[in-house]
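Please predict the structure of the following assembly.
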Amino acid sequence: MKMTGARIVIESLIKENVEVVFGYPGGAIMNVYDEIYKQDKFKHILTKHEQGAVHMADGYARATGKVGVAFVTSGPGITNAITGIATAYTDSIPMVVISGQVPTTAIGTDAFQEVDAVGITRPITKHNFLVKDVKDLAFIIKEAFYLAKSGRPGPVHIDIPKNVTADMTEFVYPEKIELKTYKPNYKGNKRAIKRAVEAIKNAKKPVFYIGGGSVLSGASNIIREIVKTTQIPAVETLMARGVLRYDCPYLLGMVGMHGSYAANMAMNDADLIISLGARFDDRVTGKIDEFAKNADIIHIDIDPSQIGKVVETKYPIVGDVKLVLEEMMPMLLDGIDPNRYEEWREILKRYKELYPLTYSDSDEVIKPQWVIQITGELAPEDAIISTDVGQHQMWAAQFYPFTYPRQLLTSGGLGTMGFGFPAALGAKEGKKDKVVINFTGDGSIVMNIQEVLTGYKYKLPVINIILNNNYLGMVRQWQTMFYEDRLSETDLSDVQPDFIKLAESMGGRGFTAKTKEEFEKAFNEALNSNAVCFIDVQVDRREDVLPMVPPNSPLKNMLVFKEDK
Amino acid sequence: MKRVISVIVENEHGVLARIVNMFAARGYNITSLTVAPIPESEFSRMTIMSEGDPKVFEQIVKQLYKLIPVYKVIESDNFIEKEMAMVKFNLDEPLSDIDALARCYNGSISNVGEKHVVVSVVDRPDRIDNFLKAVKRFKPLEVVRSGVSVIER
């Protein structure tokens, strides 16, 4: 059947079982929006800003594991989307972004609302397309979805000129996609796996280093099983929080700059690091020359370019974490003796007891860590937690009792302030039955605060807990520690919005909490309010995120207490 | 260390930009680059000469494979490498000497005009270096070098 390019876009999305598209219309994508108007197979959520649309698609993808989809127009539409696309790219989130483009005849003429969209998104997408002929459109959409979710997932961008959405052709959606040049390697090399298993069996001080790839590959259950059976200690990166339950006895906590002492010492002292979809980010390794000096490394990753990029890898395994571990499991069970690591576990247990993750609570002023902990107690166990970026993000990662993978949605790689709230809205759209809470800061929340209106319109109740210290807290902390307390442009106390009025003006609800009682009351009310809520919690202004590995220091040089500074 | 890789890519628009972008974004330097379609196929061959230690090259190859249109990256120590250079001289230079020199480097005089003569040579990149040093004494007016092309032995 012949149809227009715009109709083909819609029909292709229906074929891909897309449930929801987040977007913002404009001149160049109007033909597509006209077709959206005529259909009822998927929902469209109109956001207030293109950045919000992409972060929502991202939050939806992180929470559900499905591909997030966003529509934007040409020129400023796609440039507004860039931060969202880059955020998804850095954290390997499956996403398809479709943008309108000026007609093919106008491309290159500096036409109204024209930018070189594929040129701009090239370095921040897994792949991108400029559709020049309507005949290619269906195939490209199929390819885009396939690329977004297969191998190492990532965002894919399709730029469609306006005349292509108006042109007509026969609609044939390909059943399968076969690309000559793209064949991700899911199954690890058998011999490499065997060698790695032997190394684990021979190690005295092994540690599982669990990264975001474990979440993306759905490896949580098998990792839980292997950790339980082998009793090998494990650490998690920020992106992997929840792969192991927070109360798993072998979990040492988060690793890296604000990781626990035990987790960092485990990495420092290990003789074997088993990396499961983690990428040895500089926030994890600290000073690279000093990182894990005595350890051999087993690196399991679907992306070969990650292996050996930062650290030398003795046992490289290119493959999907889950499939590789399934292959490893029977070999590991055959003859592994958990008692072998007893002494190692004891050492780490002592580290854990010596320097637990803690803070000094107060009755005078609310401590941000307390807010995180009490939220963990008051919220349902399966609540979805998103965060913005800064101190609150690290406190959430440290103190929230994560129970499931995909429970924490956070901009790990790019560190995008303004991510948390729209991501939470996207997650709520995908997981209607779950409570969704966004931990944010008074700096971060105002970056995409306009999306309260989106939450109001589409009935997406999300609770924003603002850990309000009247500072850009993380930068303030660094200024205090490394810039002799010169607080350059980080004090926000003179320009605080009234979050209650702000929420109410956009159909939401606002609460202020200056005491613990007020917070608990506000939180319980917010839980039952069925509206986008802001809880403005006035927290200790000068609380720091500790422990901390100073930038470019070895992991063992952690600042554990405030006096260490 | 200089090293040459041969990259087989899908012959589609934007693919050159993708490859060059990858080099630029990661701070790898391209010494030379030649591109042409492979006859009777949907592929093109890019021959890229770059500099860096083996670790850098390992990353370059892995990052190239990450690009969707990249079909194959050929690394070898057993390439036949050829590069072309064209050099322009004034007509009053000793042409027979220039011609003799060019012949030593698989070349000859390609064009003689009213004022200038153009010599072209095709040889290994290191030999092209030598040729260009040797012809300096004849006061070359202009030198143009192509990128290197390679084929496995």
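Chain A has 21 helices and 20 strands. The first helix of chain A runs from residue 5 to 15.
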